[in-house]
Amino acid sequence: MARVAYALLAVGLLAAAPALAQTGPIGAAGRWTIDLKASRFNEALTGPAPTAAEVDITKDDGKSLAWTLIEEDEAGLAALQFADAPLDGTPVKAVVNTQIVEITVRREGRNAITAVTTNKTGRKQSMRVWLSDPDTLRVEQDVDGIPGPPDQSLTFRRVR
């Protein structure tokens, strides 16, 4: 679960403040690929860094986000995630690899979200996801639940 949770697209990502009347799309719809050189991985927590990752955000209507994450490593498919979550923090089910997890997503300002995933054992991971510019999606992932700097920082570039 740790490897995939930083997808989001996670969107999967912090305990955020209310959206404060933020409406409209975040601006993240489209296909994104990971920039491995601009990303920082914590292999001790998540295993080997991927060789490639792609996020396809298919819904960004200001009320919810839907995405698919596919991550590859040397052996092939390393991680897979599907989710469709409202931006108000309502818990919904998502798929991470072959597990069903609970995810909550909250809007954090105009073009950012915080997502938290919880699996059946109660393990939580959080991600803050935001657009640093129209073609760069940033993800800060907390895998271990210990306060401090993010465990991983990922950068995705817009493909379309």
Structure description:
- The chain has 160 residues and is mainly beta.
- It has a single domain (2-158), classed as Calycin beta-barrel core domain (Lipocalin, Beta Barrel).
- The protein is 5% helix and 50% strand.
- It contains two helices and ten strands.
- It has helices spanning 2-5, 43-46, and strands at 30-34, 52-60, 64-73, 76-86, 92-96, 99-107, 112-118, 124-133, 136-142, 152-158.
- The chain has a ten-stranded antiparallel beta barrel with strand order 1-2-3-4-5-6-7-8-9-10.
- Strand 6 (99-107) and strand 7 (112-118) form a beta hairpin.
- It is globular, with a radius of gyration of 14 Å.
Brief overview:
The chain is mostly beta strands and 160 residues long.
The major beta sheet can be summarized as: 10 strands, antiparallel, barrel
- Total number of domains: 1
Derived from helix and strand composition plus strand pairing, the structural class reads: mainly beta
H-E string: HEHEEEEEEEEE
Beta fraction of the residues?
over 45%
Terminal CA distance reads: 27 Å
CATH architecture grouping: Beta Barrel
Q: Average pLDDT, to the nearest integer?
A: 85
Characteristics of this structure?
160 residues, 10 strands, 5% helix, mainly beta
Secondary-structure map:
Layout: H1 2-5, E1 30-34, H2 43-46, E2 52-60, E3 64-73, E4 76-86, E5 92-96, E6 99-107, E7 112-118, E8 124-133, E9 136-142, E10 152-158
Antiparallel strand pairs: 1-2, 1-10, 2-3, 3-4, 4-5, 5-6, 6-7, 7-8, 8-9, 9-10
